Amino acid sequence: MVRVRFAPSPTGNLHIGGGRTALFNWLYARAKDGKFILRLEDTDKLRSQQEFVDEILNSLKWLGFNWDEIYYQSQRFNIYREQAEKLLKSGLAYTEKLPDKPGEAIIFKVPQQKIKMQDLIHSGIEFDTAVIKDQVLIKSDGTPTYNFACVVDDATMDITHVIRGDDHISNTPKQVLLYEALGFKLPKFAHLPLIMNIGGGRLSKRTGATAISEYRLMGYLAPALVNYLLLLSWSPGENRELIDIKEAIKLFDLTDVNKTAATFDLKKLGWINNQYLKNADSDKLADEIIPMLIEKNYIHKDGFDRNYLVSIVKLFQPRLLVVNDFADWADFFFLDEPNMDPAAEEKYLKKDLSREFTLFIERLDALKSFDIASIEESFRGLISELGIESKALIHPIRVALTGKTIGPGLFEVIYYLGKERTKERLSKFIK
Ligand code: GLU
């Protein structure tokens, strides 16, 4: 049975790179009906923090990567010591006492040999261990080193496939030597390509090395982020960019993972998020949006019209890049007066439009039914009566009503704003 593991060190938040490694492990487990194991590599007592453990677990849950087993390395020190002592007994390791340190370190005698490693993503990798120094297994303070704890765990947890970032390729020959010394069976290795920023450099805070939890706060949807993480190193083929995780589980295999470095592109993530937002269930989206509107005092906890709100969510859905855009873009529906963009006001409302606005209000007043089609009809009638182009009036009306130059269709905006508010806002610009 396939058993894979994701092994984060809780010394920081879960970032894009870790999220991608977690995804490919989880996905492979689900694709092969195997087990996904979570292992917190918290041997560094000073740098590991509970706060990061919580953050990592919450992010994984949010992304939907449920685990089948969970382990903490800090609870397994006796297992590492036992294995290290085995190596001492067989003469493959030795102890060393440093003058100013309390205990003794256990050190592995690195045999000199050429190692051929198989990798499911990269082809065979060859390595000469002559360049590797003897390796500390257990430090004098009793903590195991990463390479040793990793091998002992992967072997005793029956991990069949080690799927992790390229940055661990250089650790792999050291680990292979330890497997051999301990008499453990080697797992298969699959090293995922590096993720770089658009400019070809390392991911930085500015270029996407942001915690998964921050993407959540910014208003990205979990399925959209997962879809994007997938594309970072895999493709469903035929230039497809949108793929549901359930379908990915059916199509995925490790051997199809890209060898070349991936590029993290925030624009593309935005595009994917918009695609998911477009198709999202408006009611569910409203559930995410309501707390944001309450916090901004746009609506009151128990005094708003939910159906009305859902209609407005529907109106904006096709345009949102992130959920949080809604509160900024739709603010004019909730404020007594729109937040006026000064440049837009200068551009479209400087000219005296008293006559045009008055005539438009008269037409709205004369409508038998205040619906989107009738509003549009009355507007078109006015344009032809005045003999002007529609854009000569559409932009000024939009700015007067919303304070902005862009937004959903104007007639829908007027409809949902309502006749009274529309008249009131236009009247402000009638001299
Ligand atoms: N704790 C290591 C890390 O976060 C795990 C590496 C591995 O998967 O072997 O990089």
Automatic annotation (TrEMBL):
HAMAP family: Glu_tRNA_synth_type1 (MF_00022)
Residues annotated as domain Glutamyl/glutaminyl-tRNA synthetase class Ib catalytic: 1-97, 107-271
Keywords, sorted A to Z: Aminoacyl-tRNA synthetase, ATP-binding, Cytoplasm, Ligase, Nucleotide-binding, Protein biosynthesis
Aminoacyl-tRNA synthetase class I anticodon-binding domain boundaries: 285-430
Residues that, per the record, bind ATP: K205
Protein name from the UniProt record: Glutamate--tRNA ligase
Gene Ontology cellular component list: cytosol
Similarity comment text for this entry: Belongs to the class-I aminoacyl-tRNA synthetase family. Glutamate--tRNA ligase type 1 subfamily.
Motif, 'HIGH' region: chain positions: 8-18
Complex and partners: Monomer.
Role according to the record: Catalyzes the attachment of glutamate to tRNA(Glu) in a two-step reaction: glutamate is first activated by ATP to form Glu-AMP and then transferred to the acceptor end of tRNA(Glu).
Placement of sequence motif 'KMSKS' region: 202-206
UniProt keyword annotation of rRNA-binding present: no
Molecular functions (GO terms): ATP binding; glutamate-tRNA ligase activity; tRNA binding; zinc ion binding
UniProt enzyme class: ligase
Organism: Candidatus Sherwoodlollariibacterium unditelluris
EC nos: 6.1.1.17
Localization terms from the record: Cytoplasm
Record NCBIfam families: gltX_bact (TIGR00464)
